[in-house]
Design brief:
By secondary structure, this protein is α+β, with helices and mostly antiparallel strands. The chain has helices spanning 25-32, 88-95, 105-118, 124-130, 141-151; strands spanning 4-10, 13-19, 51-54, 57-60, 73-75. The protein has 5 helices and 5 strands.
């Protein structure tokens, strides 16, 4: 299968690569760029562990082909912050104990960021709706909701 060129901005850096047309955005991020914060869960768009922002919109990266993200801007959990300068959402998740096993955390953080970017003061219903595509196997939803609420701008 012939590879095709793509140019994509990830966390503010631009990358050019040759990829198979069947390569998902998730596999491109993990296998080509070695950004492993985005988790590979179900590979069918059911769990949300692979959620990233694509042009500001939360998407399941396992369902998006890398070629379809060509020219786009992607933000992964690595793009939110780092240990020295964590994003306010990362701080809130830690402060509220919203992290258990951590597998869902990257997708939850990205979905939460997308929500707060479009609705700075979301209701609890809006928060639950925004997180509906993210599965927490540990059942930590209440603490995750509390963390997001703590950042809502009144």
């Amino acid at each position: 299968m012939a590879k095709v060129p793509i140019t994509i901005s990830v966390n503010g850096d631009t990358y050019e690569a040759l990829v198979k047309p069947s390569t998902t955005l998730l596999d491109f991020l993990r296998e080509h760029l070695f950004l492993t914060g985005t988790k590979k869960g179900c590979d069918t768009g059911e769990c949300g562990a692979c959620t990233v922002l694509l042009d500001g919109r939360a998407v399941n990266s396992c369902l998006v082909l890398a070629v379809d993200a060509n020219g786009g801007q992607v933000t992964t959990v690595e793009g939110l912050g780092d240990p020295e300068h964590p994003h306010p959402l990362q701080k809130a998740f830690i402060e509220h104990g919203a992290i258990q096993c951590g597998y869902c955390t990257p997708g939850m953080l990205i979905s939460s960021k997308a929500l707060l970017d479009r609705s700075p003061n979301p209701s609890e219903t809006e928060i639950k709706t925004a997180l509906a595509g993210n599965l927490c196997r540990c059942g930590g939803y209440l603490k995750i909701i509390e963390a997001i609420k703590s950042l809502a701008k009144v």
